[in-house]
Amino acid sequence: MAKDYYAILGVGREATPDEIKRAYRKLARQYHPDVNSEPDAQERFKEINAAYEVLSDPQKRQMVDMGADPLAPAAAGPAPAVRADRSSASRTSWTRSSAVPPAARAAAPGRVPGPAPTR
After folding, report:
1. What is the pLDDT of residues 80-116, one digit of tens each?
2. Long-range contacts at 22-27 (CB < 8 A, ≥ 24 apart)
3. Domain coordinates of the chain in residue numbers?
4. Would you say 20 and 7 are in contact if contact means Cβ atoms under 8 Å apart?
5. What is the pTM of this model?
6. d(CA 14, CA 42)
7. Residues of the chain with pLDDT > 70: what percent?
């Protein structure tokens, strides 16, 4: 379930951007760790910042209004699929020149890394 960012800032869903900003500034001053030494002040301050980040961005605010949480890890999209096949045949082959560290490649600008010349 999505967090209620409106409740964290103490504003209604119909709040204007100016009302959101005023509520954020008031709460940020109240719960700032440099001002408030209560044990949970820092965590509360982080919640207030997250709520303002979401509600001050029109796209994120729209997501919240539709019931989503734009800061939840799943909001970034599905996790990449992990291949079940881990056999050596499925691994990408590499050449000896690709094993050269970047610092060594940078030492010889203009030279294309490749096999050592034979004599």
Report:
1. 555 555 555 545 555 555 555 555 555 555 666 666 6
2. 24/48, 24/51, 24/52, 24/56
3. 5-68
4. no
5. 0.59
6. 28
7. 61
If we measure between CA atoms, which residue out of 5, 11, 1, 13 comes closest to residue 49? 5
Question: SS3 breakdown of the chain: % helix, strand, coil, rounded to 5?
Answer: 50, 0, 50
Q: Is 9 exposed, middle or buried (0-12, 13-18, 19+ CB in 10 A)?
A: buried
98, amino acid identity: S
Task: Please name the residue that has the structure tokens 């919240």.
Answer: 64
Say whether 66 sits in a helix, a strand or coil: coil
Is CATH 1.25.40.10 what the domain over 5-68 is classified as, yes or no? no
Angle at 42 between CA 38 and CA 45, to 5 degrees: 115
Q: Check residue 75 and give its pLDDT.
A: 46
